[in-house]
Amino acid sequence: MKSAALSESGLNLRQREVTLPAGPPPSVLCDATLAFIDESGAEQLWPVLEAGDLALASGRPQRKFPVYQGQKHFAGLWWTATTRSHVGYESWLERYWLTELDHDPAVVGIASQPFTLTWASSKRSGFTKHTPDFVAERFDGGTVVIDCRPMRRISDDAAEKFAATRTVCRMLDWTYFVATEPSDVARYVNLRWLAGYRHPRFAHPEIESALHQELSSHERRLYEVAQAVGDPIATLPVLYHLIWRGEIACSHTHPLTDRTTIRKAQRGEISSITRKDMMA
To answer: Most-buried pick from 2, 162, 237, 246 (CB within 10 A)?
Structure first.
């Protein structure tokens, strides 16, 4: 279970700002279509203006995630604590942002390659298609659409597609952002470590209660708290699980060590990357 402590300001994405062109006007995108594969595997095609209430986070990917010898990109499946199921990714960068979504306290559903937009264009085929990388469902019912791309690989064509997707999301009152390389190395390292303790098997109510008690009055060093509760071999995994869940807070400006200062998370301290003020 994720913490309900959410920030009112949103989390700085810790990446360079992505500047997108204006893209196709809404008058063109009003006639766009959205292809979606629902939970049962049935393919659906919707006029984009009628797609606002689709359960996109429970749908199936538009394409598979093959793994084969010699492939140039890094694809795989990530088991998310949010959905307790596997979600696909196609690069190291996508896996990082999938980890961020899984860690986000506001996210209750995640799906990869969730839908394909098609709209009229001046291309030889007469239309353009784009499939975003992820969609996330927020606890408040909001829909968040994410594209992941390294800055150096955002070509003019990709930027036009991202801009069109941004406009569609605005038309549907969805949030959209383009996620690039994270610049905060310490946070990246810490999330990779904490993700190893995301599974519910690391939950232990008795130890959790004791850890919270140790932090009830003031902040303390991580290993000191684990040792005060019992054998660190048993208590540290539970402590890392609580940090992942957002119930215990720490700074991510430096990599986690046994001397990292931790504290009980307060309401408003745990940030979300999926707020509307993060819209591209």
So the answer is: 162
Parts of the chain belonging to CATH 1.10.10 = 185-264
CATH fold, domain 185-264, is Arc Repressor Mutant, subunit A (1.10.10)
CATH 3.40.50.880 fits 26-182, yes or no: no
* Residue 137 near residue 56, CB atoms below 8 Å: yes
pLDDT in tens, 140-176: 999 999 999 999 999 999 999 999 999 999 999 999 9
Alpha-carbon gap, residue 187 to 173, rounded angstroms: 30
CB distance 37 to 62 below 8 Å: yes
Distance of CA 164 to the CA centre of its chain: 21
How far lies 80's CA from each of 95, 142, 175, 275, in Å? Answer: 11, 19, 21, 20
pTM: 0.86
**DSSP secondary structure, 143-161, as one string:** EEEEEE--GGG--HHHHHH
- The closest of 191, 157, 159, 156 to 178, measured between CA atoms, is 159
HSE-up of residue 263 (Cα within 13 Å, Cβ side): 11
Closest CA to 158 of 191, 182, 133, 139: 133
Cβ proximity of 228 and 262 under 8 Å = no
Amino acid letter for position 149: R
Kind and range of the H or E element at 24?
A: none
- Single-letter amino acid code for the residue at 172: L
Q: For 101-119, how does the pLDDT look when each residue is reduced to its tens digit (9 = 90+)?
A: 999 988 999 999 999 999 9
* 10, 155, 164, 166, 210 from 19: Cα distances, Å: 20, 12, 13, 12, 48
